[in-house]
Amino acid sequence: MGFVKRYGNNADYRRRLEVKLQKSSEHIEELAEWLYVHTSDIESTEYERRYAEYNSELRRHDIFSDELQCYDNPAQAWRDNPERWQGLNWDCRNKIRY
After folding, report:
1. Contact of 81 with 89, CB cutoff 8 Å
2. How many CB atoms within 10 Å of residue 88?
3. What DSSP string runs through 2-44?
4. For the chain, which terminus, N or C, has the lower number of CB atoms within 10 Å?
5. Which residues fall within 8 angstroms of residue 63, CB to CB, at 6 or more apart?
6. Mean pLDDT by 10 residues, the chain (98 residues)
7. What are phi and psi of 87, to 5 degrees?
């Protein structure tokens, strides 16, 4: 008897819970959208900063010289001269197949 007095009948209680759940779901969706927008901004800014830092480091070590161009067979280039491999750009490194 106390439950009915406190919460009303079952259908009324269920309806109130559904309304609360709907409001909570909408709020969570809004938070998720906000978080996605702000996180993607942070990630892209961080990526751009790291990319610029990487490029400046490459330029500082004269990595863009002709000697370090992307070879047709980067794995062979690495076997021929592994210490210079550090200077090859990432596209060349990613072409290696082990």
Report:
1. no
2. 20
3. HHHHHH-SHHHHHHHHHHHHHHHHHHHHHHHHHHHHHHHHHHH
4. C
5. 87, 89
6. 61 82 86 80 73 71 50 64 58 52
7. -85, -15
